[in-house]
Amino acid sequence: MLSKCCLAVLAIVLSAAATPARAMVCMDKSMTLDEVADTISAQKGCESAMKVFKDCELTASGDVQLGAAVERKCEVDFKSGLSAAQSQAYKREMHACDVKYRNKSGTMYLSFTAFCRAEVAQRYSQRALKAAGQTGR
Questions:
Q1: Among the residues of the chain, which ranges form H helices?
Q2: At 52, is the pLDDT very low, low, confident or very high (cuts 50, 70, 90)?
Q3: pTM for the model
Q4: Which of 2, 47, 69, 114 has the smallest number of CB atoms closer than 10 Å to its CB?
């Protein structure tokens, strides 16, 4: 069962998808939110995806989409290699991000949640790459 917080985030993402695309300046270019998310997804690895997220942050609800793109990029490095206990720990840390600001109002708190989740995924990616003897990409 989805928590109320997850449903609220989903509603915001879906409502943002229904609105006309607005441009933002990111990486010295005018880009839509979808283009920034695509740029994050196209990065070589988690570290560069997180850098784009930080460089293009809105500190608003649009960061939910960008943070989700970072999560997906970072999870490639570690998700399939997690044990059941590690997977549960990862889910707990993500849930902690979801509940951290749940009683706060304002879109900036959605941004804070998105960054918290992306940072958790980034940490797991860094640990997995370190254990495999690789450096961050």
A1: 4-18, 33-41, 46-56, 63-75, 84-100, 107-131
A2: very high
A3: 0.81
A4: 2
